[in-house]
Design goal:
Radius of gyration: 46 Å
Number of domains: 2
Number of helices: 6
Distance between the termini: 159 Å
Order of helices and strands: HEEEEEEHHEHEHEEEEH
Largest sheet: 5 strands, mixed
CATH topology of the largest domain: Glutaredoxin
Strand order of the largest sheet: 8-7-6-11-12
CATH architecture of the largest domain: 3-Layer(aba) Sandwich
Structural class: alpha+beta
Number of strands: 12
């Protein structure tokens, strides 16, 4: 082979070697990039699976699930006990007495009291020392039963006065409500207001009641006759309005 041919052959072989080396380099880089991407995908997939398992492990069951706030699960707390609200009463004697905190007995000394009354001013138990006193406790002004009861005692007021007896009505209504009650039905017996229930509790007429299956606290319709010696002569509880004022008048006359 001539020297010129050998040179051409050597150049051709060298050129092929360079091309193969470049191709191999490109393949190596491509493989490295592919391997890097694959490893990244595997790592990301592993993280997702781990996160999913962690959430599943910490997720509360339906029985204990709480409310979520800012991505955190807050344990559910037990609901606070609800206090029963008094339903609107009809005042018609359909309520039942489920018990009161204080139970007065006949013969006991009547508790002292001082309360505001309709029209302004205050009424004190001491104002009636040496006189017989009737206290009728009614659940709510302007309800049917309470209205009939107050009208009956007003109608018999002069008869009570003749027997030396004063009649007072008492409820938890405000003085303003008592004023409206008096004006609407032309009531003449004083109406005392005890929204704080102090006298009502002292006389044992504020307690648990039941109406249409619901329990609540309120005034148990009652009447108490106090003798001129300041002692309780007679107690009527869970009063039925019809004929009640007449029965109290008879007891006051007999005292």
């Amino acid at each position: 082979m001539s020297k010129e041919l050998r040179k051409k052959s050597s150049k051709s072989t060298a050129g092929q070697s360079v091309k193969r080396a470049a191709k191999a380099s490109r393949s190596g880089k491509a493989g490295a990039r592919t391997g890097t991407r694959t490893a990244a995908r595997v790592q990301a997939t592993s993280k997702v699976k781990a996160t999913t398992k962690a959430k599943a492990a910490t997720k509360p069951s339906s029985a204990k699930a709480g409310t979520k706030s800012s991505g955190r699960t807050v344990a559910a707390s037990k609901p606070a006990a609800k206090r029963a609200k008094p339903p609107a009463t009809t005042g018609g004697g359909t309520e039942s007495d489920a018990g009161s905190a204080v139970i007065l007995q006949e013969g006991a000394t009547a508790p002292d009291f001082t309360l505001p009354r309709d029209g302004g001013g205050a009424v004190r138990s001491a104002d009636y020392a040496g006189r017989k006193l009737v206290l009728f406790f009614y659940p709510k002004a302007n309800t049917p039963g309470c209205t009939r009861e107050a009208i009956d005692f007003t109608r018999l007021r002069e008869d009570f006065a003749t027997s030396g007896t004063t009649v007072l009505g008492v409820s938890a209504d405000s003085v303003k409500a008592q004023d409206g009650f008096r004006d609407k039905h032309q009531l003449t017996v004083p109406l005392l207001s005890d929204p704080q229930h102090e006298m009502l509790e002292a006389y044992g007429v504020w307690g648990e009641k039941s109406l249409y299956g619901r329990k609540f606290l309120g005034i148990i319709r009652s009447t108490i006759l106090i003798g001129d010696d300041g002692r309780i002569a007679k107690i009527w509880r869970n009063v039925k309005v019809d004929g009640h004022a007449e029965a109290v008048l008879a007891a006051a006359r007999a005292l």
